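Action item from last week, closing it out:
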Amino acid sequence: MKSSLSVVLPAYNEADSLKNEVEKIQSVLKKASIPFEFIVIDDGSTDATHKIAQSLGVKVIRHAKNRGVGAARKSGILASQYELILTSDADGTYPAQPIPGMLKALEEAGSDMVVGARVKESGTAQWMRLPAKFLIRKLASYLVRERIPDLNSGLRIFKKSVALKYFYLLPDSHSWESTITLAFLANHHLVQYIPIDYFKRTGGKSSFAPIGDTYNYLSLVIRTIMYFNPLRIFLPLTAALFFLGILKTVYDWIVYQNIGGLDVTIMLTGIVILVAGLLADLIVILHKKSNPLS
């Protein structure tokens, strides 16, 4: 018997595309004989999104005001009855055809999450999103020591029991997807990636703010790793300062035949950062020891 899915679909002013998106996903799941429940979260829409959602015969959760796509996903997950959660977007950007294959991959490999990794970017403000996402993804890959083809794809299947462990970390904003990906990877949960297409929006207007959301992505990548593996941040900083201090010391000795105060300051700063990193790592270890399931 195939595993049942709880489909969690946030919607904010998606009256133009919501009906088609729900029917598209339902059709694929029914054709693959996958049992499912469907939950639409109306995140404070001001158009006909709520009325359309109610007409589709699915479970509808309504936020009184717009709280963010991350908050909507969390509301849907908490209201779901099945262990496996499927999340997507209501704007028509993600395909439904890969879903059965993603579920099969998760079941066969015993993964905790399968992410639909987009092979192209069709979002707004591509001139800024593409280089920013590339740099953030490379930073995230370095910090968790794993290759990440797509850090913030909205199409994914994951285990509810694992996701709930990290709810205290997950933000209400667009950075929700990035944070849950990093939380799973940093704690050595098995994450797989399935290549998918990505399309332009079929309705509504993107709430992505290029500067603000890019800043949030970057800060949340660093903050999340600080929760789980702070030495991946502190050790490179320490090494860089020690290297800079040694170069400055050698230069001052060759040119001036003495060691300047700045040389000592740089080296001491490196030592302080190293000690701070070791203390942060100790706190993480103690937290994991007292909370073995986290």
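Closing note: Strands lie at 5-11, 36-43, 59-63, 84-87, 113-118, 156-159, 191-196.
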